[in-house]
Amino acid sequence: MDNFSALFVITLFLLTIVGLIRYQSQPERVFGVLLLTLYCTNMVTTEQVISSFANKGLLTLLLLMVCSIALEKTKLLRQVAAFVVKPNYGATWLRLYGLTVLSSAFLNNTAVVSTMLAPIRNNRHHAASKLLLPLSYAAILGGTLTLIGTSTNLIVNSMVLDVGLEPLGFFDFTLVGGCLVLGSGALLYVLCQFLPNNATTKTVASDYFTDAKVLASSSLVGRTIEENGLRNLEALFLVEILRQGRLISPVSPQEIIEEDDRLLFSGDIKKVTLLNQYDGLSLFAYENGLPIQNLTEVVIRPESLLAGKTLKQIGFRALFDAAVVAVKRDGKSISGKLGDIELSPGDYLMLAVGKDFHTRHNLSKNFYFISGVETEHLLTGYKACLATFGFFSTILLAALEIVPLFQGMLLLLGALLLTQCLYANEVIARLPRQIWLIIASALLLSQALSNTQALDMFSSWITAHQEGISPILGLVMVYVCTWLITELITNNAAAALMFPIAYGMSVSLDSNLHSFILAVAFGASASFISPYGYQTNLMVYSAGNYTLSDFVKVGLPMSLLYGFIVITAIVHFYGV
């Protein structure tokens, strides 16, 4: 193609960066316009469009993210979170940092931060603002340790495959990432003294009141509330214990659970399935043999026969073929065992319903129907084992180069669907379509740069100025540009946009291509200053009541040390 086509594609590249800065919250639209423009102007072929969306590295990333959904539904990460918080801040910080780094090296770091948010935010020992930003930074640093630790590494790998190079190894990032974890982690610990001591307000999505009975066989018996991890449940708060007719409120973290205790919780009813992770903890609906995956929300009518009576008195199950999972009373607090609460007109009830519920003729006389509520589905028994051991076994086999990661994850996804650990509708709902479009469009841009000889023009310019650009300077330029784009836009977009530039510069300077590839991968993960450049930063930004200046105070020194370690380690281990 002629020089006009090459200049046109370069202009599109620059306009894409401008568009991403201007529309930071809608990167998929910017890349969508780029894709359509490239295809409409014949800068790329139909075959290249198809191959970009079917790129093996990209599909591996999607499979990894989908399979990790099943892992999120187990109690593994919640058990890890319960282990972290201790009265001593230093001990808590080290546990939080170490476990987050290790978890993020093998799991989706967004899922790790999401799971740890509630226990950190609700802990009684330390201000959440002292721990949430370190949580995000630890997840970023941990993600740099392995190929699957962060989506940016997998994006870079997909672009490596797209240009016909050998795929990156599982531990190709570990030497440099290990240096970052140690060096940046030490600095982060020192900088945490500058974090604010913000008080966080606990917001309850829907303040329903529910209770669960402790059975004799439960492992909770004989252990304290804190030891059992009941103190920091996500959006569920233990407000009372009913023990042999005596009400214990407020509940001390050191209170020891006894057999037949009724644990009374207030909070978001969608999270009620979290209680299933504790063996020997029985909800009223389960006692009646009713499922709680899909609930029905109703309001008691003024003329209802329920008014002024308790659930026990009315014989609720026989009357309606339903069981009350939780009760909410606007403007007033509720106390005591669920079955003994005297109901009033206007009370909200969350019902687990039987097969005959909707055929009963007395429903409209007693209830106003509000909505159906789908609770979170948690995996237990063999399904939890399959999701946990299946995921880590697949990663281990890939790390040992026994089974390719793509093949292993595809087989695991099939097993998860067949055993109903995952359902097709939740896979479709959680499919990262935004990332798919962004990366596929970036791959197409790379193809267009190659098709139009734009990269050749860039190489010619580098060659003409070769005296002033050494390989080490070129490496620094690639890293700094990737880092700046990450802070201005997002990590995924930075990795996708900068790879073809790094590839072209490496070839022109006749330098170590692997070093330039790593510079892009690590530069794309270097998001410490902006709360918008990396998804985990955005998650803790509002949860910790941080300001932009909090990120700058801690993030700027982190970024400078991180960059120094990356360049030094790459040159030392791989050369230029």
Give the strand line-up of the largest sheet: 3-2-4-1-5
Poorly predicted sequence stretches spanning 5 or more consecutive residues? 201-206
Helix content: 40-55%
Specify the biggest β-sheet.
5 strands, antiparallel
The average pLDDT is 82
Taken from the alpha-carbon principal axes, the silhouette is: elongated
Work out the helix count.
24
Measure the end-to-end span.
Answer: 32 Å
Strand residue content: 5-15%
Structural class: alpha+beta
Computed CA radius of gyration, to the nearest angstrom: 27 Å
Tell me how many strands there are.
Answer: 9
Structural features, described:
- There is one protein chain.
- The protein has 576 residues and is α+β, with helices and mostly antiparallel strands.
- The protein contains 24 helices and 9 strands.
- It has helices at 3-22, 27-40, 46-53, 56-72, 76-84, 89-106, 109-122, 132-143, 151-162, 174-191, 284-287, 311-314, 316-320, 363-366, 381-399, 405-418, 424-430, 433-451, 454-464, 471-488, 491-509, 513-524, 535-543, 548-574, and strands at 208-214, 236-243, 246-248, 262-267, 281-283, 294-300, 322-328, 348-353, 367-374.
- The strands form 2 sheets. The chain has a 5-stranded antiparallel β-sheet with strand order 3-2-4-1-5. A 4-stranded antiparallel β-sheet has the order 7-8-6-9.
- Strand 2 and strand 3 form a beta hairpin.
- The model is unreliable at 201-206 (pLDDT under 50).
